[in-house]
Amino acid sequence: MPRSITKEVSPLLKLLHEDRRYKLEAYQFVRMGLTYAQDVLELGHAAEGHPASDTGRVPRHVTGRDLCLALKQLAHEQYGRMARLVLAGWGIRSTGDFGEIVYNLIKIGEMSKSDDDRRADFDDVYDFQHALVEEFAITKEE
After folding, report:
1. Contact at 8 Å (CB) between 61 and 44?
2. Does an H or E element contain 61, and which?
3. How far apart are CA 76 and CA 82, in angstroms?
4. Cβ–Cβ contacts within 10 Å for residue 7, how many?
5. Alpha carbon 112 to chain centroid distance?
6. What gap in Å lies between CA 53 and CA 42, rounded to an integer?
7. DSSP 122
8. Which of 39, 73, 126, 141 could form a disulfide with 131 if both were Cys (CB 3.0 to 4.6 A apart)?
9. Per-residue pLDDT reduced to its tens digit, 30-52
10. In three state form, how does the secondary structure of 43-59 look?
11. What residues does each domain of the chain span?
12. Is 30 exposed, middle or buried (0-12, 13-18, 19+ CB in 10 A)?
């Protein structure tokens, strides 16, 4: 990317250019998963030092493991039996990839972490074949 353009480009677009492992959709999915974990599943605890937003919402800190579990559930809901293939199309093949994406988002200021968080918290949380394919079940309501 030419130097004169990089100052005008959003941090996420710059990141996509520098780290080509993951597509934009992968970053969007992980960000959606964080909101899903906090708001729908009500995971996490109030993040220290983060005041309530204009909407009165207090940010909730979610662990790497909890985020991975929320992303599994979201993938089942959004993509059903195709979840593993959809995620693979975006470059996500393991829970470790979720960690790489989260830490890339932390690096550009799109997410934050606590002192206790580690990139390794995302490693081997579950096997994609088992969690996204074998555990998927169509329920009567669906």
Report:
1. yes
2. strand 60-61
3. 8
4. 7
5. 12
6. 17
7. G
8. 126
9. 999 999 999 887 876 655 555 54
10. CCEECCCCCCCCCCCCC
11. 3-134
12. buried
Placement of tokens 């960000």 in the chain? 31
Return the SS3 of 142: coil
Q: Residue 49: its pLDDT value, please?
A: 53
Neighbours of 1 (CB within 10 A): 10
Q: What type of residue is 76?
A: H
Distance CA 125, CA 121 (A): 8
Task: Check if the beta carbon of residue 118 is closer than 8 Å to that of residue 103.
Answer: no
The label of the residue with tokens 């207090």 reads 58
Structure tokens at 134: 């074998």
109 Cβ contact list (under 8 Å, min separation 6): 11
Predicted confidence at residue 40, as pLDDT, reads 82
Which tokens hold the place of 50? 């983060």
Alpha-carbon distance 133 to 22, whole Å? 21
